[in-house]
Amino acid sequence: MAKPQKSLGQVFMNGIFKQNPTFVQFLGMCPTLAVTNKVSSALGMGAGVLFVLVLSNFIISLVRNAVPREVRIPIYIVIIAGLVTILEIIMENYQYDLYTTLGTFLSLIVVNCLILGRAEAFASKNTPLKSIFDGMGMAIGFTLGITFIAVFRELLGAGTITIWGDLAIRIIPETFTINLLTQAAGAFLVFGLLVSQVNKLKFAREASSEVA
Amino acid sequence: MQHLKIVLSLTLVVVLMMVGVFVVEQHFRPLIDAAAAERANLAKDEVLPGAKDFPVAVDNALEEEVYDLGDTGISAIYYYEGLGYVYQATFTGYQSEITYMLGFDEAGIVTGYKTLSQNDTPNYGGNIALPEYWEQLFGLSLTDLETGNFDGITGATFTTTGWKGSFEKVVSFHNTVFLNMETTDVTSSMSNLPTSVTKVERSAQNGSLVSYTYTVEFTGYNETPSSFTVTINTSDSSIKNIAFIEVNETDGIGSHIADSDFIAQFLGLSVTDATKLNFDMVGGATYPITLGGFKTAFNEVYTYHRAVVDGYVETDAEKLIRYYEELSSDTAVLVDTTDDYTLVGTPITKVEENDDYVLFTGVFPGFADDITILVGFDKETSNLTGLRVLEANETYGDFTTAYSFMEEFTNLNNVLAMYGEFDSISGGTLTSDAVRDGLYQMVGFYRSEFLGKEVESTTKSLYDLALEKALIFYPTFQSITDVTKDYDADHLIMGIYEVKDASDQVLGYIFGGDSVGASYSETTYLHYLVAINPDKTFAGLLLIDDSETAGKADSYYLDAYSAQFVGIDVELETYPIDETSGATITNDAILAGAREVARYYVETMLGLEFARPEPTVIDTADLLEAYPSAVSFESIYLNYALDEYITNIYLAKDINGDPIGYVYSGYVPGTFLKVEFVWGVDNSDLTQNLYIISDASSWDWAPDYSGGEVFATSTFLDLYEGIQIDSILITEVDVYDSWSGVSTTTGTMRDVLEQVAQYHIDIVGGGN
Asked: What is the rounded distance in angstroms from the CA atom of residue B610 to the CA atom of residue B190?
């Protein structure tokens, strides 16, 4: 019996919750831990990943039948690298501050396993439209995941929330902040704690659906 | 065919992406470059306010002229005539090239800084992009930048080193190229250079002399010399800057002399302040020997410079005025009140005072000749404001400029000054002792006239007192002889006098004793005469000072108190002496002192073994507080000499029974009752915990000074934990000093712990 086709909505939502790249698939861990010290950086990284992932999924889906299987990975990487280069140029022109803040991690989107992973796992096997929706869902899921981590880290670690640029809204006085959370170790800590809670919810949901 | 398909598809994708990137790049690159140029212009205005509205004299000097940039990293220079300069430079950070823009006005004061681009590690070197790290640069001089006199970025040593190095190169380039600065080594042409000066360089700008830079060596606490450069402006003899080349003082102690906030004092130091050596050791470090060594060298080179370059030599009269100002204040008007005092019997020749200060001029015999000193007192605190040697012809060098010695007296407690609690001059011990004797009398006079204390007895008049009191102890005595030098010195005994009768038989000995006393206001020392008979019984004891709290210890001066001692066996464990109500500690201190004198008599003079009290048994729970990692303890005090403040010594052992260290139990004569403690130290002389078993100090009376802490858990005690035990004996380390406001408790505790430390090192064998 053929596997039932997922709708575009299902494809989109898959990346938000069920197969969330950050908390379920654990993809893109490098930027997850590096740029989540500020909400604005996380949002910026998410926007960059959205651009690259949607376009790479679309292009790769377009050429999926023409690309020889033996060289599919190098071709995917060339496409992704080209898109990241274009992203860097556009961001340098339109969002210079974000460009300098993200720095090296912008270039590292090329090796973000989320991008290549979806290219191989979905875009190379599905239509361009579905691939676009998958890219959007996964990128937005990724953005939501890293932004969620950034909210915790910045709020508890620095006492502020920086939505954009230098506009930092102080919510918790500096004396009550936990400075560790803005450091690398704090990133692991917050990530671990949030993953545990996500898994708890997931298992509870699975248990209740089994009972049902 | 398949292979061809693979190659073609790969090539096609690569070419297509290449074209795509090329197209995007071509479209956006001009926009990006224009935005970068606009940012650079804004940045120029940011780092040199007014630049955007100012007619630029030279828009990037590099385009106009050819300079030898070398490895400066300079990529652009802008000059706005009448406004200032903007430099753009690049250096290598930890993992990226870092480009910045620096602006300064024509006077060489930094007006702004901005990091233009960097890709260093976020939260580390990447912090160079944060404006909060730039703010410290605003207002600094080019000299500050050149010498790196600003804070680096925490956790980013490599980036900070590159940053400071870049500034050094940029400033050096600017000085050479735009200010036409030229530096020449003129060491060989300078005559009569002080021995501390190893090099002299002369700097000229556009042919005009601007400064001299002297390279100077000085010896502080450690024997290996340290070195620094001092640059003096020729225009007004102010100090341009100093920089330390090599610091060989103790790490974390005297090494603080190279701290940036100490150096900052010298930038722009006026000729007046430089002449008066008006600078302090800052940053929580006051180490007189290091500072004194530095001051001696600085004074030497500055005096030379003023004499040779400015043709100015401070006259003796000017120096005297300066000394008066240093020991009082710049505006103090002092009145000569010599005639108001009876100075006979003191070395004081002049008294000058106002409401805040009093200065004594004193003359007394030194080692080679008479010494004249000026001593100042702050009437509010009664501390010495300082000591200056006015005239001396001693064998030790030029004693009159021995700042390493004179520095010790700045803000010195008068009691410590009086009892010679300062370091001697290296190689001038006898001269230092002469100063001790003179100071003893001068401070004693101050205490008598200004604090209402009775005139202290001196070592010379101790003999007179002994002679006077001998009749009380030995009614049939005929002669009394000073035999102090015939026996080994002891820090508790100021003098030993042999009393004989008419048939030349020894009736006994009178000892001048000195032990830590107790008072509400300061650490004091009790002086008393105690007489011991040849049969090892007391003949009497009399207090001969009044440093104890008035009204509390008066009875101890009465003959009736002394009479209690008559006939008591000196080797009794407890002397049956009644205390005076309300002065238990004084009584305890007297009896402890008397016991030590008795022990000295029996062990040192008679060569016998002194019966000693049983060591105090300490609960294991208390011992574990002092040495938590030990499992068992064994008392070993009977194997070692008795010490007045040590009540027991335990060998701390591990689970296998192997010795791992020691625990000393002891007491400190507190203001009300004894403070009993235990203190652990391991086999490598690292102290463990200092635990207070019982505490009845007056600490609670001074919550403002103690910061609300409880003595038994106070951070004062933390100073003595986890350190090498000999470190508290280094006199330069005043971190172990008493705390103001609770100085009786902390000061006496410090003295006792120093004694225990010395005992451990000398007797137990420290490091075993």
From this structure: 67
Task: Please check the confidence at residue B279 and state whether its pLDDT lies above 60.
Answer: yes
Spell out where B568-706 has E strands.
632-635, 646-653, 659-669, 674-682, 687-694
CB neighbour class for B196 (10 Å; exposed up to 12, middle 13-18, buried from 19)? buried
pLDDT band at B620 (very low <50, low <70, confident <90, very high): very high
Q: Does A89 sit within 8 Å of B29, measured CB to CB?
A: yes
> Rounded to 5 degrees, what are φ and ψ at B285?
-125, 115
Give me B371's structure tokens: 């010494």
| B731 within 8 A of B615, measured Cβ to Cβ | no
Give dist(CA B375, CA B392) in Å, integer. Answer: 15
Residue B459 pLDDT: 44
Does the beta-carbon distance from A75 to B10 stay under 8 Å?
yes
DSSP notation for B281-348: --TT---HHHHHHHHHHHHHHHHHHHHHTS-----HHHHHHHHHHHHS-TT---EE-GGGS--TTSSE
DSSP B487-539: S---TTEEEEEEEE-TTS-EEEEEEEEEEE---SSS--EEEEEEEE-TTSBEE
Chain A residues close to B28, C-beta within 8 Å: 89-90, 92-93
Residues 19-78 of A with CB under 8 A from B: 34, 37, 63, 66-68, 70-71, 74-75, 78
User: In 3-state terms, what secondary structure has residue A84?
Assistant: helix
Digit-coded pLDDT (tens) for B426-452: 666 667 777 888 888 899 889 888 887
User: Residue B678 and residue B645: Cα distance in Å, rounded?
Assistant: 11
Record the tokens describing residue B200, joined without a space: 């002299």
Q: How many CB atoms lie within 10 A of CB A66?
A: 11
Of B422, B403, B424, B402, nearest to B412 (Cα)?
A: B422
Are the beta carbons of B399 and B389 closer than 8 angstroms?
yes
pLDDT score recorded for residue B388: 92
Minimum-distance CB partner of B10 among A74, A82, A96: A74
Token pair in block for residue A164: 């954009």
Does pLDDT of A89 surpass 90?
Answer: yes
Residues of A in contact with B119 (CB under 8 A): 103-104
> Taking CB atoms and an 8 Å limit, are A92 and B32 in contact across chains?
yes
> Using beta carbons and an 8 Å cutoff, which residues of B are at the interface with A?
2, 5-6, 9-10, 13-14, 17-18, 20-21, 24-25, 28-29, 31-32, 35, 39, 117-119, 122-123, 126, 129
With beta carbons under 8 A apart, name residues in chain A contacting B35: 93, 96
Burial of B334 (0-12, 13-18, 19+ CB in 10 A): middle
Amino acid type, A21:
P
Cβ B9–A79 below 8 Å, yes or no? Answer: no
Residues in chain A, overall count: 212
| Beta-ladder partners of B348 | B362
Question: Is the predicted pLDDT of residue B715 greater than 80, yes or no?
Answer: no
Q: Which residue has the tokens 């190689």?
A: B427
Residue A167 has phi, psi (to 5 degrees) of: -75, 90
Q: Is A66 close to B28, i.e. CB distance below 8 A?
A: no
Residues of chain B in contact with residue A184, where contact means CB-CB under 8 angstroms, are 123
DSSP B605: I
| Cross-chain residue pair A71–B117, CB shorter than 8 Å | no
Side chain identity at residue B203, one-letter code:
S
> What is the pLDDT of chain A when averaged over all its residues?
88
3-state secondary structure of A161: strand
Question: So what's the pLDDT on residue B240?
Answer: 83
- The confidence score (pLDDT) of residue B527 equals 76
* CA gap A73, B500 in Å, rounded: 112
Residue B425 DSSP symbol: B
Are B25 and A89 a contacting pair at CB < 8 A? yes
Q: How far is B93 from chain A (nearest CA, A)?
A: 14
Ordered DSSP codes for A8-33: HHHHHHIIIIIT-TTTTS---HHHHH
